């Protein structure tokens, strides 16, 4: 299937799942009544820009904070130096300007990451004010307080995405003792308020069977979860290759995710990087998304932390039109299977040479 049609179909399916989730929730229904037309307008903007020679992806990823309150084993953000507890990120108005430009171009979703994004409350509040874009906020969840619960409750374009590793015990093993139970408490509060929340699961060779088990997924749904992101582990930190999915593992995971999607029409199941054969390559460098680091650098992907254009200085459109991204897209569509959850990871030397 042609890439734009493939991604538009995926967005429509996601919107359908969220609409079902919110059928019995007045705040959610009101949000979707406004947001579904916004999705259609954004798709039309992307189609128009395509005719003008500019491919606009439906997604961005923005790491709005370089600090984090945890030190998780194998963390990609610490492994590639983006999360350093020292660097000062961009000002709130700079982030707002970038997000508003992106929305104007037709971007529908900006995935908010870090570091720990909830450390940057002013930017989260700025995201809440941009109603024609949805902001899945990838967080360890530990900084939720009453003010944050209220903010997410009143602004359903903010979607909390809680990072877990599987069971509470599996989460503790990577994130620290007691973290799993604290996350369960946060999830309980989100469900109590009927806030659509997602979980993000890092899939490794060790946990892939457990986190895709039907009982595990059913338990998430019964706990109020509406979306599951399955993120294949990328070995940014040294000596962690034993956690990487083999080629056989990746093929198995792709089939298993397809089974879960078919069985669970009441949930969104979103794998990353997903079916690269169907998408004719990696989605990085603007094909489906690109990453803005805490200093505004336009990177192909969070796992490929190299840039030539600063979005805060030059804008989103300049990044999409850059020669750097064009060359990266040629690399990422080479037809080879990915390794370690990221095709560009295999081409790091080539990317650095650009």
UniProtKB/TrEMBL annotation:
Keywords: Iron, Iron-sulfur, Metal-binding, S-adenosyl-L-methionine. It comes from Aminicella lysinilytica. InterPro entries: Aldolase_TIM, rSAM, rSAM_sf. GO terms for molecular function: catalytic activity; iron-sulfur cluster binding; metal ion binding. Residues 67-208 form the Radical SAM core domain. The keyword Metal-binding applies. Transmembrane segments: none annotated. This is MoaA/NifB/PqqE/SkfB family radical SAM enzyme.
